[in-house]
Write the C-alpha cells for this entry.
Amino acid sequence: MSKNSDREEVLKVNDKFYKALATRDLQLMDTVWVKDSRAGCVHPGWIMLQGWQAIRQSWENVFDPKDQLDIKLSNINVEVKGEIAWVTCIQKMIYLKRNPMLINVSQSTNIFERHESRWLMVLHHASPIPITHYEITETHLQ
C-alpha cells in the first residue's frame, strides 16, 4: 500500500472509533481494537487501562444508550511509519441530552498497528483540556 493509502485507511479506522463512541456502539468498538494485553486506554482524567477486556468493560460501563453525543475533531494529524501509525487530534464531545449540557474537550492520541491488510487501535489516550465559560460560545457548538 502507498503511504497515502495507509493514511486514508488509518483515518477510516480512527473515524470508526469515534463513530462507535458517538453512537455508543460496543459491537463497532470491538472491530477497532487489538484484542490482547498490549491494548491501552486512558479516558480523560482516568489512569491507564491495560488489556482489551478492561478497556471493553470501561466502554460498557460509560456507554449510556440515552446519551446523544456529538463529536467534532480538529487539528487532525496522521503519521505512518511502517507497521505503526498514530493520529493526534482535539476531540470535542458534546453531550446533548444532559441537563445541563456537558462539553468535554481533550487532546487525543490514537496509536494503530497494521494487522495484515487492516489497522487496529493499540492505544487511545485522551487528556482533558480545561475550558472556561468564556470559551464556550455558540460558535464552539457548531
About this structure: Residues 25 and 42 are 19 Å apart (CA to CA). The helical segments are 3-23, 26-30, 52-62. The radius of gyration is 15 Å. The chain has one domain: 3-141.
